[in-house]
Write a structure and sequence with these properties.
- The complex is a heterodimer of chains A (304) and B (489).
- With 304 residues, chain A is an alpha+beta fold.
- Chain A has helices at residues 11-35, 46-49, 69-79, 83-87, 109-123, 138-166, 169-197, 203-233, 238-270, 276-301, and strands at residues 51-58, 90-94, 99-104, 126-136.
- Chain A is elongated and about 80 Å long.
- Chain B has helices at 2-24, 31-34, 52-69, 95-102, 117-140, 147-164, 173-190, 224-237, 280-292, 309-338, 340-362, 369-398, 403-435, 438-470, 484-487; strands spanning 28-29, 36-43, 75-79, 83-89, 107-112, 192-198, 202-209, 216-222, 243-248, 251-257, 271-278, 299-307, 366-367.
- In chain B, strand 7 (202-209) and strand 8 form a beta hairpin.
- In chain B, helix 4 packs across helix 9 (280-292), helix 5 (117-140) packs antiparallel against helix 7 (173-190) and helix 11 (340-362) crosses helix 14.
- The longest helix of chain B is centred in the C-terminal third of the chain and has 33 residues, at 403-435.
- Classes of the chains: A alpha+beta (304), B alpha+beta (489).
- Strand 4 of chain A pairs antiparallel with strand 12 (299-307) of chain B.
Chain lengths: 304, 489
């Protein structure tokens, strides 16, 4: 089974497609920075801004009755003394009205307990064994954000350094270009998700970006290795050898992406909800990463 | 061939060892998998960095307090130079722990300034009223249609403010009440002069119920030098109208006079009691704090995670489904595409799984949700090395090489790509592990360990298993290695 990707012919198309994706991502980032309520390039989640997130299940005999979040909030407001925080509360029912999910600004443990007690009075009984509560102070949030950004920068620097030492300058430059292309696009997609579906990013998003970085470079390195090897031994022209090498590694790259996507897909389908967006970010990164390793990075190597 | 057989025995030995380890040293589950509470404590220092000594001092105080709390299991770790992480497995409501741990518990003994009796009496009166208001407020807070009573509280508060000649700046009523209470406490404390007796001079603390009513009191036992200091101080104010105040974290919890009979020797015996209307719970909390000593630097609880036990076991189940279905589908994909080679990779994946888990229990790595996702993700990466090798073997077979030669050069030629690729992933893991939070570290650890082990399983184990298979004549046909329809071209 031979593959025949016409890299040389489609160079312009590939470049245009990548530029289109990059522009779309930049647009999302800019729109998110200037035109949203949070005024950040991406919708930062609780990990980074602090707050209180509570998920708890109701105990229902058969089916849980339908409740409107507004009426529950109205009731909460009536018995709660701190009217201020009630105004900033977000409440949702999920899972056939069984699961209650609440977001508020930062609360002390005591205030959070009061909130749960009040909630129990209004829509109880609640199943405390199913509670999942996170309280993050604003100070810690800021620190986590700096931590994540430094981790990203340090590891990008380390990867760049390794690639530059290991490969010729030209290869290294293009492998890194492909890497930043991948990261920018995943970041852009999440900017858009933030704008359109108010999806928030937490520290696991930073982890997924780092993992994507390692993965994307890995993919590109394998193809560049093949190109280097073939350039030494094959008689064909430079551009043709590159195209041949890409076709030779095509199966490997797609297969690897598939075998990595399968477990991620099973986390998305069966895994815990807290890993959903994380796995999605990784999956997107792997798809974009395979595209850039197979098509974009080698095309950048082509001579006119 | 001999050497390969040696490897085969070695691999079987490792597998047995892994199973043994897993049975005898069960995996440590993180709180998101078994339920419990996790508190992150931040050390507060106004200027400069928290030194190593200070960190250790805070650690030991917190450690003592946790032990005295009587929690069945706990785990305290330092994080990043100025944070501590406390894990309380099984704890569903960390309120008491947070109250006990969060306080500095700086105990001071102070004597009253001369000629401040009227000021003190007035302030004590205001303190009593504000305490009553706070109590009323916490009752009214739970009632519906409480607007009228809240208004009464508000008016009473205004009177107190006028009396004190101080107006609060907080936005809501509760904040105002607390602010005024703090102001009164500060003013009272200011009427007393520091002495050199403090919580450091204690060797023990206890509690008991008062005989006359249901309140509790806290007993203090001084060291011998502390006892002498206490006698000295009580002697100096005995029979005067100056009072002795016991101050905890800037709040005076007891003011008492010392009788004339102590004027010659002071109160000796090296012990004292604080009776400040404690409930049983409050008395116990204070006892624990005093036993552990005061914190050298104040701390703040910056993060609290609580996970119900039921949710934890659900998380385990979900992760198990995800891992197993991932493994099965990857296996199907590999066998479909690579036939016998695919089967070999499935076997080495199973080995990979066992080795990984065994290493987790050996190191030990605490398994958390992100950790499990790292493990599941590394399945894909472990297969990657196999795919690289198998693709090479296929090419060699297409080129007409013998099976044995194809296998050899396949493994050899894929080596450099595999190592290169793994190093970039390892770099990311390393940085994540160094800089990441606890949560992130779990992911970095399992992914990193996975990448390292996959080097061994995909290079060595696959090769050994494949060699073992090819010793059987019937397993040496080329069409078992390549899908038939493709073999012709």
């Amino acid at each position: 089974m031979k593959y025949n990707l016409e890299l040389i012919k489609n160079k312009i198309k590939i470049f245009s497609f990548s530029i289109f994706l990059i522009l779309l991502s930049l647009l999302g980032i800019l729109y998110s920075t200037f035109n949203t309520s949070y005024k950040k390039p991406i919708n930062l989640g609780m990990d980074f801004v602090g707050g209180n997130e509570l998920r708890i299940e109701r105990v229902c005999e058969e089916e849980c009755s339908n409740l409107s979040p507004d009426s529950v909030l109205e009731n909460l407001r009536e018995i709660s003394s701190n009217k201020n925080f009630i105004n900033n509360i977000k409440l949702q029912f999920q899972n056939n009205n069984k699961l209650i999910s609440i977001r508020t600004p930062y609360l002390s443990i005591e205030e959070s307990n009061n909130l749960i007690t009040n909630l129990d009075n209004i829509i109880g009984p609640l199943n405390y064994e199913s509670k999942d509560s996170r309280l993050i102070g604003p100070k810690l949030g800021k620190r986590l954000l700096t931590n994540c950004v430094t981790s990203l920068l340090v590891s990008l620097f380390a990867i760049s350094l390794y690639i530059t030492i290991r490969f010729d300058k030209k290869y290294a430059l293009f492998a890194l270009l492909a890497l930043f292309h991948d990261l920018l696009i995943v970041f852009g997609i999440f900017s858009w998700l933030g704008i359109l579906l108010s999806v928030e990013v937490n520290s696991l998003f930073a982890v997924s970006l780092l993992t994507i970085a390692g993965y994307s470079v890995n993919d590109t390195v394998v193809i560049f290795d093949r190109i280097r090897e073939n350039l030494k031994s094959k008689e064909e022209g430079y551009n043709e050898t590159i195209q041949l090498s890409v076709n030779e590694s095509f199966r490997r790259t797609t297969f690897t992406s598939i075998t990595t996507l399968i477990p991620l897909l099973s986390i998305i389908l069966f895994g815990s909800y807290s890993l959903f967006w994380f796995s999605l970010a990784l999956s997107l990164g792997i798809i974009v990463g395979s595209y850039s390793s197979i098509l974009l990075a080698p095309s950048l190597l082509l001579k006119d | 061939m001999k050497r390969r057989q040696g490897w085969l025995f070695f691999i079987i030995f490792l597998l047995t060892l892994s199973v043994y380890l897993l049975i005898n040293y069960p995996l440590q589950l993180g709180l998101d998998l078994q339920g419990g509470s996790q508190l992150t404590l931040q050390i507060i220092k106004e200027e400069g960095k928290v030194t190593r000594d200070e960190l250790e001092a805070v650690y030991s105080v917190i450690d003592k307090r946790v032990n005295n709390l009587g929690v069945s299991e706990s785990n305290l770790q330092t994080l990043g130079g100025d944070q501590l992480i406390l894990e309380l497995p099984g704890e569903q409501n960390p309120l008491v722990s947070s109250r006990v741990l969060g306080k500095t518990a700086l105990l001071e003994f102070r004597t009253q300034k001369e000629g401040t009796s009227t000021d003190l009496k007035n302030l004590q009166l205001q303190r009593l009223s504000i305490k009553e208001l706070i109590e009323q407020y916490s009752i009214e807070e739970k009632n519906q249609n409480n607007d009228y009573y809240l208004k009464v509280i508000q008016d009473d508060l205004k009177d107190i403010e006028q009396e004190l000649n101080y107006s609060s700046t907080s936005n809501d009523l509760y904040g105002k009440l607390i602010e005024i209470k703090k102001y009164v406490d500060k003013e009272i404390t200011n009427l007393f002069i520091k002495t050199d007796l403090s919580g450091k001079d204690l060797i023990n603390a206890g509690r008991r119920q008062e005989q006359t009513n249901s309140n509790w009191e806290v007993l203090l036992t001084f060291s011998s030098s502390g006892g002498e200091k206490f006698a000295e101080i009580t002697k100096s104010i005995a029979g005067t109208n100056q009072l002795l105040a016991i101050i905890l974290d800037g709040e005076s919890i007891s003011e008492a006079s010392v009788g004339n009979q102590f004027a010659s020797t002071g109160i000796t015996g090296g012990s004292a009691t604080i009776s400040g209307n404690f409930s049983a719970e409050n008395a116990r909390e204070l006892e624990v704090q005093l036993k552990g000593g005061s914190l050298p630097l104040p701390i703040e609880i910056v993060e609290t995670n609580t996970i119900g036990a039921l949710l934890g076991s659900k998380n385990i189940l979900k992760s198990l489904y995800a891992a197993i279905s991932g493994l099965i589908f990857v296996g199907i994909f590999m066998i479909f595409n690579y036939r016998i080679l695919g089967f070999v990779s499935v076997l080495s994946l199973v080995l990979y799984g066992f080795f990984n888990l065994a290493l987790y229990s050996l190191i030990p790595v605490t398994l958390t949700l992100p950790g499990i996702s790292g493990l599941i993700l590394s399945i894909g990466m472990a297969v990657d090395a196999n795919i690289l090798i198998f693709e090479r073997i296929r090419e060699e077979l297409y080129d007409g090489n013998t099976l044995s030669r194809a296998i050899d050069s396949g493994f050899q030629r894929a080596n450099s790509s595999i190592v290169d690729g793994h190093i970039t992933t390892l770099l990311s893991c390393f940085v994540l592990f160094l800089l990441g939070t606890n949560f992130v570290k779990g992911f970095a650890a399992t992914l990193g360990i996975g990448v390292l082990i996959s080097l061994f399983t995909s290079l060595n184990c696959s090769k050994t298993i494949l060699r073992f298979f090819t010793t059987y004549q019937s397993l040496r046909q080329k069409n078992l290695y390549l899908p038939k329809n493709n073999f012709s071209n």
